[in-house]
Amino acid sequence: MGRPKKFSREGVLDRAIPVFWKHGFANTTVQDLERATGVNKSGLYSEFKDKEDLFLASLERYLTTRGAGILTAQPLGWNNIEKFLRLGFGPNEDQKGCFSVNSLRELAVLPPEAQDVIVTYRRQLARLLMKNIEAEKPKLNAAAIADAVLTFFDGFCIEQNLRKSKASSERKIRSLMQVVRSW
User: Fold this and answer.
1) What is the mean pLDDT of residues 80-98?
2) pTM
């Protein structure tokens, strides 16, 4: 009988997410993950098949614990969308933008399942964005506006990795919201 594990899966994932977020999938080493999680290689591999499996589980945890909840808050509408866009700043200096969006830059080297997870989540986001937009009864098609918002969010998240002022980024969100509110 093996020794009982002294860590929780969720705890490992919560500590692995910032590492993958900061360094990306390709540049994150198992040693980086051992340091961040406090779990040695054999412990990690007893819980996850390999680095790819740990990344995929981290991505899934990130997507289920962040973001979409903002878009379900009542009342639905523009305020939810504006709050969602602000998630694009990221939580701190080491985690800028959005982990999922940043991961898209490495699509060629990500585990194939990661693309499926991201695509499925983006469809969910698009549906939630449309519900919020429809609640405001816009003049234009809600799906078209949702596409524009999601495209803005992608670019905004990637741009956060540059050394830009927060005031400039806030201005961009306000400008987009002014435009979409007029649609």
Assistant:
1) 90
2) 0.87
